[in-house]
Amino acid sequence: MEFIKGVKYIECPGCKKFKLNPTKTMNALSRKNDKIYVCSDCGTLEGFDSLKVIIEEIEDKKKRKKARDLFKKQREELKKFLGIN
Prior knowledge:
Distance between the termini: 16 Å
Structural class: mainly alpha
Shape: elongated
Number of strands: 2
């Protein structure tokens, strides 16, 4: 995420970091609550989390477990990369 010089960022309701641009449309509309905006990083994580619904539709139990394990590992790596706790 690039910060714009001179912009006073506000706290993101997702990660609690001061990364939310005061201009709402410069942020991401939350997938969890379409009445709030989150920072771009939290929006990316929420988008990734939407894949979990698809994983649960896998009928083969072994494949579903493998997909869950991969999802969990990749989610943690994405959070680390984005700097989200």
